[in-house]
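Contributing new records

If you add data, match the layout below exactly. Sequence lines come first and carry their own label; structure lines follow with theirs. Keep one chain per record. Anything else will be rejected by the validation script.
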Amino acid sequence: MRESFANKVLATCLFASLVPSLLISALLLSSTQSMSQQAQVFWIVTVVLAAAAFTVWGIRSLLRPLEELTSVVDKFVSTGELSQISTAPDDELGLLMRETRNALLKLDLSTKELLDVSKVDVLTGLPNRRFCSHRLKQDLARADRGRIPVSLIAVDVDDFNRLNERFGMTVGDVCLQYFADIAKTCIRDGDWIARWGGDEFLILLWDADSRQADLVIDRIRWKLAQSEITHEAGIRLTASFGYTSHCLGETNYDLFAKADSALHRAKRLGKNQSVSSSSLKAP
């Protein structure tokens, strides 16, 4: 049976008020002529102060779990870290503490799930632009620290707008999913591919130079050429590629700009082309 927190508080207050009153009454009734008035005042003050100290100690002991709960909530709000609650009395306060922590656990889980969802492109299941921007910045900083070569490939599905107009957006969505599935099989563990937006994708190759990026592009183009989407129109996808290698100290914006410029060049040359940023003429 659960104890009552209110009864604990009332009992503490009653004890702190009743016991001193009884002690003072007993002191006054048993006082003899040999006890001076000053001695009586001293003992009365001592009893009152002792009762006050006991009351403060008792109330603080009862409220200590609440202080711990407040600290846990404050830490969760400030840092997102959820600490254990060491004490939870078997009363209304303990119930409040346990239910509050359960609510924080559910909130923490929901927040993490929402954060994960916010980084995923719903259509292809690939990381989205938000993830891509954050991850690219992290990877380049890591590459700079370790002097590790990194290559970035920008990809654009050829004639995607025309495909949407001819067959409809549903078929267009299937084409994007199809390309994403093909491209994922052509990269290694540690590399990643993300949907940058629309029909454009980014592929980051870790510990890879332009030659290795070219090999990955060839694998993707070969797989696209060897298969076609199951559709009455017999659609065969092709894509244009622009790729570049990371230079020491180069920002994620600069690296993307180089890959994007190479991609635009590949699209101007015609579909199913790949261009390296090193082949672009300096302005």
